[in-house]
Amino acid sequence: MPVWLREHSWRQSGSAVFLSLPVPGVRVTAANIFCTDRYLKVSVPPFLFEAILYAPIDDTNSTAKIGNGIVFFTLYKKEVGMWDSLTLENASKETLQYLRENAVRKAHEKAKEETEAKKVTKQEHKKYALEATMKNKEGMRTAYFCVVSQNDLWRQQENLPKLEEAERKRIEELKEQERQKVTKELELWEDQQKYVENQKKVQKEGQLHEEVGQLKEKKKEKNNKTSIPSEETLKTRLKPTKGSGSYSMFSENLKEEQLPAPRSSGTIKINFTSRVFPTALRESRVAEEEEWLHKQAEARRIISADLSELEDLKEEEKNPDWLKDKGNKMFATGNYLAAVNAYNLAVRLNNKRPLLYLNRAACHLKLRNLHKAIEDSSKALELLTPPVPDNENARVKAYVRRGTAFCQLELYAEGLQDYEAALKIDPKNKTIEKDAEKIRHIIQGTMQNS
Amino acid sequence: MAAAAGPERPQVVAHVQQALSYTLFDCKWVPRSARLLCLGSAARGTGVVQLYELRAGRLELLREIEKAKPIKCGTFGAASLQQRYLATGDFGGSLNVWNLEAPEIPVYSVKGHKEIINSIDGVGGLGIGEGAPEIVTGSRDGTVKVWDPRQKDTPVANMEPVQGESKRDCWTVAFGNAYTQEERVVCAGYDNGDIKLFDLKTMSLRWETNIKNGVCSVEFDRKDVNMNKLVATSLEGKFHVFDMRTQHPTKGFASVSEKAHKSTIWQVRHLPQNRDIFMTSGGAGSLHLWKYEYPAQRSKKDSEGAEMGVAGSVSLLQNVTLSTQPISSLDWSPDKKGLCVCGAFDQTVRVLIVTKLNKV
């Protein structure tokens, strides 16, 4: 059972009623207040206050102020006058009931009306927006957002795709119309052309008649008949073909007489844009071609740069392979300096062959040019970069030679590294193993000493 | 799908489409009529000429003529309006002039070239231009020859490579500058990007340049005026518009170039009724409609005081994709503004209408 609130106080003026209602302890919100033109109810569980007003009030303008534990109503009377009391006294239960129900019903109706009104305004907004889009598609969205009220914004956005559809349909229609218009024009033109064609046919026939007539005339003249009657016939024959046909025929004859004689023959010799490649020039290929030419130029330059020095040499001596072989031979005979020279020349001609560097490294070792040996073995290893089984052999040699050089320079650690690398590639080689052992001992020896 | 239209832009409307049973190389309107010619090569290796009439939204076949060799190109340019003889170049290098009413025997015939005639043009006929009617043919054998139908067997002018020079295919030829009886100019484009301008009055090479890509099509905006503009299209999607009014002694003619189509630009054709509008057709089956705008000053003086041309600008009016295959031939109707026919390698010929050209 709710607790009735009875400790309200009120006072009135001619046009308004001021009612203060203490609601101890609970918070009142707008949802708890229900007011129609004759019925006022505040229901905040567990409290309940209701009043069937003495006279109708203007409930749309009346206000309620919710404060600390108190609700202050300002009710504007519909009719100016002083009330005897706030509520209707001596009302029977039925009338009270009836009034309550009435009030509720009225409230419902009011709510309905409001939604109706809202709908109508919404419709009008839509229409306006559509018109705006019809006029200018770019302005569509801006026009749209200007017009539509903030509250309905998110709801209106759902309608945008429909408007675009409308736009697209309109464009399609325009296109169709154009197509049809153009087809009609074309048919008209076609008919015109047919008419012209027919005219031409008539003219042609006329021409033929003409020519036939002329031939006949000539025959007649040959037979020495007077020309006068033939002229007359000529004239009569001319008449049917008179019109655009005849004058153009004449003008054509005139034109033919005016046409210049065929040009005197002449020949113009031409050259085509010079090009290195046999294929035709294509812009997208220009970059590739430039690169290729560049490389070619480089290679040629290297060879030709040495030309001045190599003038004395024979053709075969410019071949890196031949030079390598020569170098190998000299190494075998012990002529290390000469071998180095041979390898140098070979390298100048072709600096991308690891074997040349390898062999030169061996020569340097023998000559005790240890730094040079290291350099060359390193270069060889660089060139042997893709470590594949094919260049295993070469790599082993390179590591061994470098290792030896390091050891001879007493850089035993590096030497050992290289020997171990060599061993990794070719673990079955006994000599390398033995040498590696030796180096290890030497290192351990020195470490023990120091 | 046409580009979204601002309401004032020209629209390209596909009016009629006709599927053919042969490879179509060239299509031409018959002047002063609603008829068009399709030239091509049948599957069995013979040449086909079909005459269609545009009637009530359809193409009706009026005549079909078969010839020994496939036909690559044709023109009405050198024919009189009454006779309307068709000049064709075929795969065997022969130039033939046909009377379509009696096509069994050609009116003029010459085996002018050793290899296929790639391109043909005519001037002096159809009431356009002054001077003798002449036909120019450009062939894969690298020569460009000018013929007069009144002179048998020998060309009136022959532009051939110097002895010993390796030849380059000539892909396109065009007449221009035919504003008096003596003046005439032939422009030829080759597959290595060379464009050469020959002056027939002085029988000399007037200008040459290289546009770095094979030249597919050249055309003057008008054959019968003092040469005004020349459009040259090439492979790899580029075309150049040269301003031909001012020739600089070293720099030649000023030009503006534009990239379009993203593929070979096969043809360029100027609208007969407005020389600043032209259409280009591409290897991807697309057509672009362009408008050329002249600069404020068409010529200016360079540092040494010599006159130099100033190129204008080109703007795209409309583009449309009609096919997946290259559109190899294009022709505007000289009688109806906006009516054009195009032939593509998908064996269809299409009649198109371009609207709103009055408002451009």
TrEMBL record, chain B:
Keywords: Apoptosis, Cytoplasm, Repeat, WD repeat. GO terms for biological process: apoptotic process. It comes from the Eukaryota. Gene3D superfamilies: YVTN repeat-like/Quinoprotein amine dehydrogenase. The keyword Repeat applies. This is Dynein axonemal assembly factor 10. Signal peptide: none annotated. PROSITE patterns: WD_REPEATS_2 (PS50082). It is found in: Dynein axonemal particle. SMART domains: WD40 (SM00320). GO terms for cellular component: dynein axonemal particle; RPAP3/R2TP/prefoldin-like complex. It comes from Anser brachyrhynchus. Pfam families: WD40. SUPFAM superfamilies: WD40 repeat-like (SSF50978). Key assembly factor specifically required for the stability of axonemal dynein heavy chains in cytoplasm. WD repeats lie at residues 135-148. PANTHER family: MRNA EXPORT FACTOR AND BUB3.
